[in-house]
Amino acid sequence: MADRDTFYIADIADYEVRRELIRSSKTASITRLNGLRARIKHIPIDSLQLAEAAQLWADVRLLGHPAAADPALDGDMILIAQSRALARQLNGNVTIATTNVAHLELFADVKEWQNIA
After folding, report:
1. What gap in Å lies between CA 73 and CA 91, rounded to an integer?
2. Does the pTM exceed 0.85?
């Protein structure tokens, strides 16, 4: 990892983690997530990103290459749209750190989060 690298939390990723923590009543983990969110920049979801995500979702379905079941693909496409918006904003490259490389690598630069050094 280069000194110039900046980490962001995509709002869709926060949502997906947070909803499970809430369902599981993991209040200490929610507090930690809130603390992380306070320290790391985040990428808010906007209507343009949702429109791009909808187009990506439809494109992958029409090509016959869904990488995941419909519900999982929804969040994945929103994450990709958020990463593309950030790349345009920064005029640079964005790498998605994930455990879900297979679902995302068709659309974005992704790496297993454990392998980012």
Report:
1. 26
2. no
